[in-house]
Design goal:
By secondary structure, this protein is an alpha/beta fold. Helices cover 40% and strands 18% of the residues. The chain is globular. The structure holds adenosine-5'-triphosphate.
Length: 350
């Protein structure tokens, strides 16, 4: 029997509500697997944990994440809970950086025409994946203390050769599993750091002559994602650009409740919905759990065991089948299903 040890971090706001549905789906697929089991251990992290014990990411929880086969995370942080200097808690970014989870994987797939604000797009006709560099870029100086009396403030956009190479390589490898096209998003017309990123991209691209490449400035990309989202396959970009474009992309497929994500390093990975804690709907039982359920599928695929890979496919197929029926919608998609009703439907289809 192969047992996978999963650290489960429900976190704050709707985090616990959506993670509960992903766990329900995990147990449903586990029941159909042969020779595979999941040992789930829950850890308290986030704003509520900070209020209790003064640390949003306690050492014991961090150690458990490092030791686990994978981490399933809800969402962390609440707008009203801040460090004494007024900064927001960002334990999810700390976790990414401390575990060196450099590869932010954000699949964007349209499951039903009615979820898309654009005309003429049907199920599966928007289907691309964003590779966001997670550990440097414009977030790199975020922890540098500010001089509060100063007349200026600066942030550094850091691109290292190693950082750029590994995210570009990950994007090209994925392109070979998909439709063999990679789009680099940068700002190489203005920023020297982005000229460097493009040079590294070009040198990686030379090793993948079978993959088509495209280079687009980030401002144009905001336009093209709205005008021709169907033309993209794999998109690779810097940390901050990836942060912004993945929310725009989520808007094309029904919103944050539909957008899964994975933060992947060397042998360590965290799977979570792209959304935050959504304090405006927390505790009401109306959050859409699909993004978290799809993140679970990413986790099962990444665990790379024949049984877990098959289970990932069963979950993706179940989500597709459930969402094909317009009656099956949570509030964010214009329906009336509760979080648990949606989780039940997917679990029953797996
Ligand atoms: P963060 O800064 O942590 O990303 P945020 O406050 O910017 O958080 P979200 O928490 O993702 O953003 O919420 C953005 C909007 O999307 C809110 O209106 C929220 O209610 C909605 N939303 C987010 N997740 C879901 C979900 N799973 N189901 C339904 N609506 C959601």
């Amino acid at each position: 029997m192969k047992t996978f040890h999963i650290a489960v971090l429900p976190g704050d706001g709707i985090g616990g509500e959506v993670v509960a549905e992903a766990v329900k789906v995990l147990r449903a697929v586990e029941a159909q697997m042969t020779g595979v089991a999941f040992d789930l251990t829950e850890h308290s992290v986030g704003a509520a944990e900070y209020l209790k014990n003064g640390d949003p990411l306690p050492a014991s929880a961090f150690a458990a994440c490092r030791a686990a086969d994978a981490v399933l995370l809800g969402a962390m942080g609440l707008p009203s809970v801040r460090w004494p200097d007024g900064k927001e808690l960002t334990p999810q970014i700390d976790l990414r950086e401390r575990l060196d989870l450099f590869c932010g994987l954000r699949p964007i797939r349209l499951y039903h025409a009615a979820h898309c604000p654009l005309k003429n797009y049907g199920a599966g006709e928007i289907d691309f994946v964003i590779f966001r560099e997670n550990c440097e870029g414009l977030f790199s100086s975020r922890l540098v203390p500010r001089d509060l009396g100063a007349d200026e403030a600066r942030d550094t956009l850091l691109i290292t050769r190693r950082g750029a190479e590994r995210i570009c390589q990950a994007a090209f490898r994925e392109a070979r599993r998909r439709h063999r096209k990679v789009t680099l998003v940068d700002k190489a017309n203005v920023l020297p750091s982005m000229v460097f990123f493009r040079e590294v991209f070009d040198s990686v691209a030379r090793h993948y002559p079978d993959v088509e490449t495209e280079r687009v400035y980030v401002d144009a990309m905001a336009l093209y994602l709205v005008q021709r989202p169907h033309t993209f396959d794999v998109i690779v970009t810097e940390n901050m650009f990836g942060d912004i474009l993945s929310d725009l992309a989520a808007g094309l497929i029904g919103g944050m409740g539909m957008a899964p994500s994975a933060d992947i390093g060397e042998g360590c990975a965290v799977f979570q919905p792209s959304h935050g804690t959504a304090p405006d709907i927390a505790g009401k039982g109306i959050a859409n759990p699909i993004a978290t359920i799809l993140s679970l599928a990413l986790m099962l695929d990444w665990l790379d065991h024949p049984e877990t890979k098959a289970a990932a496919k069963r979950i993706n197929d179940a989500v597709e089948a459930v969402l094909a029926d317009p009656a099956n919608r949570t509030r964010d998609l214009g329906g009336a299903l509760s979080t648990t009703q949606m989780g039940d439907l997917v679990a029953a289809r797996c």
